[in-house]
Specification:
heterotrimer; A mainly alpha; B alpha/beta; C mainly alpha; A: mainly alpha; 2 strands; B: 2 domains; 11 strands
Chain lengths: 500, 336, 165
């Protein structure tokens, strides 16, 4: 049991007082950063990176890993409470988390999210411990055609997420994809869709700008109209007994949690994908396989559990390509990678051999961080609920301000604030006419990945489309994706036939 | 009621103003002292998060923070949009602003040349310091059995026109220019596939999705150590690279001519028209960074070439390199 | 609702035409040996948007969708008022950031919103109007080192930086 010894060695490192303190502190900091709309783990890790110079490398990565974990937990909080996904990984959590909060079940949703995160994190760490090197080969086998096939699969899972209005759902997907193309054409290196030649469009339309615009500003406008001004958003009370009850109720969702965890982990280890497609696919599958699929989107707890388990599992998963291949699976791991280089560690296949102490210290601290993030999260739930009980005329302006400040932080540009404002207002006006918004928000995340991998594949194959089907992995995923894509259409046609 | 509101509003406003105003007069320092930043300095990075330029900038920030070299922190801000066009037009829009500096790479030359509409003239920027020069090597997977440049050229030609896949980070990027240099020198044509970032390119080579790359030393170092990839030759003049990368033959040594040389500069510039005293502050600051043990250690470990340059000499260097890039871009058909 | 449905569909159709025109700045066809050109992806997706809009308009004329039959008003007078106030005050706030910065705009926005929209007592309003910018400052500028826009109020913050950074 070499792994066991290594892991025990790792725990000896992780449980040193300094490291343990850093874990607890990192989780708490990460939780708050993650809970702010607009700020996510990437901000927390980037900003605190220089601080890590003061401690040894192993403690440094432990600290940053804890922030990462805390922020992943925190992301669910703003998704559930405010309906604003703080990061693209938490979009799927809003679908059912927000309705639950509006129904007065915010406490249940928060406990469910935290528990699912814990389960997802734990399972993925165990998988990480046992199978890291062989899984690195899986990541290597994924080239552009495989990535494109995976994107098709991800799109397939969320076709079913839109409303019943088919042209409007497609419109939403298309407009999201077009916005995702703004900025730069990666193949020719030419600027693309620079509206009115404003330099702010060079960096593209940031996911956060669209998400905060639509879910933050748009949602508040919507709530104000629906709530007639002064209604309390949520009426949940938190007691220990309530939490215990929630936990028991969650036992029923074990299967969904496990599905989300495994799926999230495997999608997470693929270098390009990261946690967003993972959480999305987990949601899609949970909905498709549920007996009660119509209640999804209206406050079904499984719709919170699946994406949350998946995105935490994926965030551990994305550490794998970082450590073994030296390539980032997400912006956060990109910064972590920079940190490792600064500390004088060479990520790559030899890291597991030459820096055992570092790798296993990190893994052991992930176990610890996962546990502390759960405890801290649950401890703060009453405070979050208290915030929700504020009168709406206080909560609304505060959320507006958070949106504006949080929207500014990632890019430091007022251009993005104006864009966010426009998205919020137009999104609200469109939403009143039953245009679904979620597909656009997700399309803007997946669009660049899909276009890039498709065009890379086609350049490699000299324009031959068959490249997607000839390779075994990509062919399998592609066929699966196309089948899934057609399923909802078949359902709709059947429903129509039944109706006439 | 209304009037009371307005009155109270004014009161609160006045209180705020007084508090701040008082603080200002209390602390405003003596005028003879050297210029120092009054607020956090925006450290604009011409590339996105996680790339080579970003890592270096954050490393520099860490050194400054660790040794408390600056009274106010440097705050890295990524403005990588449009191959750095966003950063360039931002810097252009802030002439005389003493609280902005920018970490550059070679898109400092290529982006204004490829996008003349930006109206950016890099010669107007205030030069601060060149911190290092990075370079490229030609890499193949170690399973290929290709060990020399000759074998490589044979293999590419044998594969036939455009059947050899070369990975890079995008047309007009440094590696595409180097690829064009190779094509011209050896008379073959490859298929150039753009990926997002040099790290991704390195991984695609190891996953055998592409046949060769031109990577920075640091991007392939981990795989090289693990015996997965192999450098064939360096785009540097003889003897410039030290350490483990010094053992790699250069194209010049192998007799392919002294024109097979390409550098990636890692410099810092400031907007136009900042005062002499402001410039001096930043030059001194980066000199301290340059001389730090951390920076020197990083350079030798990562195969970067030390090359401190500042003042007019740096501007001259920029202008010369811009001319050289104009030629390269023209030769590769990127600009007319 | 009926009118709004048509207006929105037409507006979006115009927008997709604009996107098509803008995408066509780059090649939109199939480049041999390489696959789709740089503008193809956004261009054909914009075409897709246009098609969706056309379908929505056709449904409107045939009155086959629920919204095209709806006689409810798109916004009643009260909704228009709330919307105009909220969106308008937000607009003014964002615009004022350019001039008086985040720390000037936040308290003014809070005071307006809480007093005028919510009729909360002055004491609560005042506490929040002071606390919010202070907390924001310490969280963003000091803890996270993210500089928020300050407009003309920039020099007022130099002493604060001297004290806390």
């Amino acid at each position: 049991m070499e792994i066991f010894d290594l892991l025990m060695g790792g725990f000896a490192i992780a449980l040193q007082p300094l490291n343990l303190g850093l874990i607890v502190f990192g989780c708490a900091v990460g939780l708050f950063i993650g809970a702010m709309p607009g700020l996510g783990s990437v901000n927390g890790v980037a900003i605190l990176l220089p601080m890590t110079f003061l401690v040894p490398p192993t403690s440094a990565i432990i600290f940053l890993g804890a922030i990462y974990y805390g922020a992943m937990y925190g992301g669910a909080i703003s998704s559930i409470m405010l309906g604003i996904p703080g990061a693209s990984t938490a979009v799927a959590t809003t679908f059912d988390g927000r309705p639950m909060a509006l129904q007065g079940k915010a406490d249940f949703a928060l406990v469910a999210a935290a528990t699912a995160s814990f389960v997802g994190g734990s399972i993925s760490i165990v998988l990480f411990t046992l199978f890291a090197p062989p899984l690195a080969d899986v990541a290597l086998a994924f080239g552009p055609p495989e990535e494109f096939a995976l994107m098709i699969l991800a799109f397939a899972t969320f076709i079913g997420l839109g409303g019943d209005d088919i042209p409007k759902t497609f419109f939403s997907i298309f407009i999201g994809l077009v916005f995702s193309a703004v900025g730069l054409d990666i193949v020719s290196g030419q600027p693309r869709l620079i509206f009115f030649e404003l330099p702010g469009f060079f960096h593209g339309v940031n996911f956060l700008v669209l998400a905060i615009g639509i879910y933050g500003i748009g949602e508040i406008l919507w709530t104000m109209e629906v709530s007639k001004g002064n209604v309390v958003v949520s009426q949940a009370n938190v007691t220990i007994r309530g939490i215990g009850k929630s936990l028991r109720a969650l036992l029923k969702t074990t299967k969904t949690m496990l599905m989300g965890s495994f799926l999230g982990y495997f999608v997470g280890i693929l270098p390009a994908a990261g946690a967003t497609p993972g959480s999305l696919m987990a949601y899609g599958i949970a909905k498709a396989t549920s007996k009660d699929s119509d209640s999804f989107g209206k406050g079904n707890v499984e719709g919170v559990v699946a994406p949350e388990a998946a995105n935490n599992a994926a965030s551990t998963g994305s550490m794998l390509p970082m450590l073994t291949l030296g390539i980032p699976g997400s912006p956060t791991t990109a910064i972590l990678l920079g940190g490792m280089v600064i500390w004088g560690l060479e990520p790559g296949p030899l890291l597991f051999v030459e820096h055992k102490e570092f790798v296993w210290g990190l893994i052991a601290s992930l176990y610890a961080a996962n546990l502390f993030a759960l405890l801290i999260n649950i401890a703060f739930i009453p405070m979050f609920i208290w915030v929700l009980k504020m009168p709406f005329t206080i909560l609304a302006p505060i959320i507006f301000i958070l949106c504006i400040v949080g929207g500014y932080a990632p890019t430091n540009s007022m251009h993005d604030i104006w864009l966010m404002f426009i998205f919020g207002v137009v999104g609200y006006l469109m939403r009143k006419l039953d245009y679904p918004m979620a597909p656009a928000v997700l399309a803007i995340v997946l669009g660049p990945l899909a276009e890039r991998s498709m065009r890379q594949s086609l350049i490699g194959s000299h324009g031959d489309m068959m490249t997607f089907f000839e390779r075994p992995i990509s062919g399998t995923i592609m066929v699966l994706g196309i089948v899934l894509l057609l399923l909802p259409l078949v359902k709709i046609v059947r429903r129509r036939e039944a109706a006439t | 009621m209304k009037s009371i509101n307005v009155g109270k509003l004014a009161l609160i406003g006045a209180a705020f103003g007084l508090a701040f105003g008082g603080a200002v007069t209390a602390i405003s320092g003596d005028a003879n002292a050297q210029w120092q930043p009054r607020k956090p300095v925006e450290f604009v990075i011409m590339a996105g998060q996680g790339g080579g330029a970003d890592r270096l900038a954050r490393f520099i920030q860490s050194i400054i923070e660790k040794h408390k070299m600056s009274p106010k922190p440097l705050v890295p801000i990524n403005k990588g949009g449009g191959s750095g066009a966003e950063a360039l037009s931002y810097l252009k829009s802030k002439p005389g602003d003493p609280h902005i500096i920018m970490a550059t790479l070679n898109s400092l030359y290529t982006t204004p040349l490829r996008q003349p509409g930006l109206g950016v003239d890099i010669a107007t920027f205030t030069p601060i310091a060149r911190m290092a020069e990075d370079t490229f090597q030609l890499w193949v997977h170690s399973d290929t059995g290709i060990k020399t440049v000759d074998e490589y050229v044979k293999a590419v030609k044998k594969a036939g026109a455009r059947n050899w896949k070369m990975g890079g980070t995008g047309k007009g990027q440094e590696d595409s220019l180097v690829t064009a240099m190779l094509e011209k020198k050896f008379g073959f044509k490859v298929t150039y596939i753009p990926y997002k970032g040099g790290g991704k390119v390195a991984k695609e080579l190891i996953g055998k999705h592409i046949d060769s790359t031109v990577n920075n030393p640091s991007e392939q170092a981990g795989f090289w150590d693990a015996g997965k990839s192999r450098p064939l030759a360096s785009f540097t003049p003889k003897g410039k690279l030290k350490g483990k990368f010094g053992g790699i033959p250069t194209f010049e040594e192998l007799g392919y001519g002294s024109d097979m040389v390409y550098y990636m500069q890692r410099s810092v510039v400031a907007p136009a028209n900042i005062g002499k005293d402001v410039q001096k502050f930043y030059v001194d600051l980066f000199q301290k960074v340059y001389q730090s043990a951390e920076w020197q250690g990083y350079l030798s470990k990562k195969g970067l070439i030390p090359g401190w340059l500042t003042g007019q000499a740096l501007t001259d260097y920029f202008i010369a390199e811009r001319a050289a890039h104009k030629k390269l871009l023209k030769a590769s058909g990127e600009i007319k | 609702m009926r009118v709004a449905e048509l207006v929105m569909a037409l507006a979006m159709a115009v927008f997709s035409l604009y996107l098509m025109w803008k995408s066509a700045e780059l090649p939109i066809g199939w480049i041999p040996e390489e696959g789709p050109g740089g503008g193809a992806f956004p261009f054909w997706l914009s075409v897709g948007m246009l098609v969706c809009c056309v379908v929505i308009v056709i449904r409107w004329f045939r009155r086959t969708s629920p919204l095209s039959r709806s006689t409810e008003p798109y916004m009643d007078a009260r909704t228009v008022r709330i919307f105009a106030l909220a969106a308008g005050s937000l607009f003014v706030m964002v615009a004022s950031i350019h001039l008086i910065g985040v720390y000037g705009a936040i308290p003014l926005f809070l005071i307006f919103y809480m007093r005028y929209m919510g009729s909360h007592p002055w004491r609560l309003t005042g506490v929040l109007a002071v606390a919010m910018p202070v907390v924001t400052f310490f969280f963003f500028e000091i803890a996270l080192k993210i500089s928020l826009p300050k407009g003309k109020t920039e020099p007022l913050f130099y002493p604060l930086y001297d004290m806390f950074l």
